[in-house]
Structure to design on (194 residues):
């Protein structure tokens, strides 16, 4: 209510999608496909699973590219296993742009 | 090589994204946030997890709407728990359109 108080949520939201590399077995997807077929969905040919982390970042760095670079670092250090995973980074909310 | 042989892959691909409803605890996301903060990514404010199933469907029904309806049925019967999950359905590949 007072002057200077900010109600704007400036958090940037970034989606990191982690998927298995081509050729890596996906038993969860395989079993989901089997279950769907057994439930009567005979036209399901394949099911692949992916995981998404929606990361809310305080944009202390103005530059979207820099934030993306930081998220890439997060993938390397924690979120993805480079032996079996590919990842994709996508900005879904940015109040500055 | 012979006449009439088809090389076109007509499989439709549909992404089903399952996320937790607003207010439902996401311990995996919480712990990922903590781990990122501890790794030095201090500006991470929140992490939410989602799961995506990429479903390959043989499009015996011509209509994209009908396939979407069928995938909705899959969510109701197997993929999502209506008590805690919201889901979104998105066609990512359709050779007929």
């Amino acid at each position: 209510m007072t002057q200077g108080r900010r109600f704007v949520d400036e958090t940037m939201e970034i989606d990191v999608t982690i998927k298995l590399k081509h050729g890596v077995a996906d038993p969860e997807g395989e079993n989901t496909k089997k279950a769907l077929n057994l439930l009567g969905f005979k036209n399901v040919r394949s099911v692949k699973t992916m995981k998404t982390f929606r990361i809310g970042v305080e944009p202390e760095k103005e530059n979207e590219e820099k934030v993306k670079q930081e998220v890439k670092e997060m993938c390397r250090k924690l979120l993805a296993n480079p032996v079996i995973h590919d990842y994709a980074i996508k900005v879904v909310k940015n109040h500055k742009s």
